[in-house]
């Protein structure tokens, strides 16, 4: 199926969810579908258009179309905000889902007047509560794209439907919407998640239309970095192999003042070289979250040349892939986890999600089941002991005391890389997905 121009008659409508951790792997999924010759229309609002640049630069033919809708008018989201990264995701994700549902009628109108309408919808799994009804109304199939792995998905479905762990209407709708989708696409690979994919099929979906296509790695340079990449690489070039600790907690997590102080103190005590990516504090920041300690930490770091403190976006993938980076203190977001595994760095797990199904489930998988990561701290509400964290940071880049977790991580990296190569499990799954999409019949208007 690779590069099959004969597939161009198959038109897919894509609806990503507007937050960085969702839209970037979604873009990579679309990239791979374009490589196999499909025609794709992507739905986006104006302020998220830049995230599609990797597709626009790659695809010069007429098989990629961008459908730009104004962000629906509402009073539940701050004026001018079109991406969840700019607000508290726990509070605003349900609001975004509700507001974006207003695109349903414009999409129906677009479909009914299109000379070459799509045969299926691929939408972010957060949107399934309204993209499933949209697909049904248009006599199409909706496939939910999940940025979670199958372990997390299964755990999430179990907690909501069997144990009633979170009985909020929004969570229940999310789970049911995903299960009721015609198919599910997962950013993972069979060798890692095959048993849980089977469990989802047997206990929840009751069908086998699940495709593990990952790792779907972020496109390079797709984020709005706040420091020139060349400057970061130049600094890393001056460091020894595997000697640098990279610290980042994703696009949404913001540490409390005690947590920030613990990390800063640990870095001082450890003596390691480091890059610390610090998200901007929230507007109206009364709790002083994500504020760098004011005891001259930044000045000392800058003066010693031992580390970089980067505020805002960082060129994360380029950092992780650099030979000098040896370990990664992370919140265990799945995108960051995959990037680290593919880059061969040692993961230091500090899960930060408010809901257990996300980062905590991933941390348990990495630390307890696979043995490819070391737990640095328990959860979002924990404050790491600075001395213990300092020792862990030092050990994670120590040449004298190589960690067995690193050896296992390197083996998992080889498996992940093999999955996306020609003939690998994810490559074959992609062929299967394309074959399935090509079997669908266009709806006549």
UniProtKB/TrEMBL annotation:
Keywords per UniProt: Glycosyltransferase, Transferase
Protein name stated in the entry: UDP-glucuronosyl/UDP-glucosyltransferase
Source organism, top-level taxon: Eukaryota
UniProt keyword annotation of Methyltransferase present: no
MF terms in GO: UDP-glucosyltransferase activity
Annotated family: Belongs to the UDP-glycosyltransferase family.
GO biological process, one term: flavonol biosynthetic process
Native source organism of the sequence: Corchorus capsularis (Jute)
CDD domains reported for this sequence: GT1_Gtf-like (cd03784)
Pfam families according to UniProt: UDPGT
Keyword S-adenosyl-L-methionine on entry: no
């Amino acid at each position: 199926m690779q590069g099959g121009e004969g597939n161009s008659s198959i038109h897919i409508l894509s609806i990503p969810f507007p937050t960085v951790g969702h839209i970037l792997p979604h873009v990579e999924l679309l990239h791979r579908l374009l490589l196999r010759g499909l025609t794709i229309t992507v739905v986006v609002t104006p302020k998220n258009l830049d995230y599609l640049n990797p597709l626009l630069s790659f695809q010069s033919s007429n098989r990629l179309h961008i459908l730009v809708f104004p962000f629906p008018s509402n009073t539940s989201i701050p004026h001018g905000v079109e991406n969840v990264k700019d607000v508290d995701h726990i509070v605003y994700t349900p609001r975004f889902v509700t507001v974006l549902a207003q695109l349903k009628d414009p999409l129906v109108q677009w479909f009914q007047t299109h000379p070459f309408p799509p045969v299926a919808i691929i939408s972010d799994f957060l949107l399934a509560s309204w993209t499933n009804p949209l697909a049904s109304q248009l006599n199409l199939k909706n496939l939910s794209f999940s940025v979670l792995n199958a372990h997390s998905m299964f755990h999430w479905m179990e907690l909501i439907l069997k144990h009633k762990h979170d009985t909020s209407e929004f969570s229940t709708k999310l789970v049911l919407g995903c299960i009721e989708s015609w198919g599910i696409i997962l950013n993972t690979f069979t060798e890692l998640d095959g048993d849980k994919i089977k469990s989802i099929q047997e206990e929840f979906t009751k069908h086998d239309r699940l495709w593990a296509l990952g790792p779907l790695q972020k496109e390079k340079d797709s984020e709005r970095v706040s420091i020139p990449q060349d400057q970061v690489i130049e600094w890393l070039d001056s460091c020894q192999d595997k000697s640098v600790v990279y610290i980042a907690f994703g696009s949404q997590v913001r540490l409390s003042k005690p947590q920030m102080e613990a990390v800063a103190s640990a870095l001082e005590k450890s003596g390691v070289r480091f890059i610390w990516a610090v998200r901007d504090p929230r507007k109206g920041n009364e709790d002083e979250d994500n504020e760098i300690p004011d005891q001259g930490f930044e000045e000392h770091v800058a003066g010693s040349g031992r580390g970089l403190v980067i505020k805002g976006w960082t060129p994360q993938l380029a950092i992780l892939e650099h030979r000098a980076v040896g370990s990664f203190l992370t919140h265990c977001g799945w995108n960051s986890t995959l990037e680290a595994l593919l880059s061969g760095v040692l993961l230091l797990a500090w899960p930060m999600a408010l809901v257990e199904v996300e980062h905590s489930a991933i941390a348990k998988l990495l630390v307890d089941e696979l043995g490819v990561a070391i737990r640095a701290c328990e959860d979002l509400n924990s404050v790491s002991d600075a001395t213990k964290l300092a020792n862990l940071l030092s050990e994670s880049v120590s040449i004298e005391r190589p960690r067995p977790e690193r050896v296992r991580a390197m083996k998992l990296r080889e498996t992940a890389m093999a999955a996306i190569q020609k003939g690998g499990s994810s490559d074959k799954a992609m062929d299967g997905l394309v074959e399935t999409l090509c079997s669908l019949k266009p709806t006549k208007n």
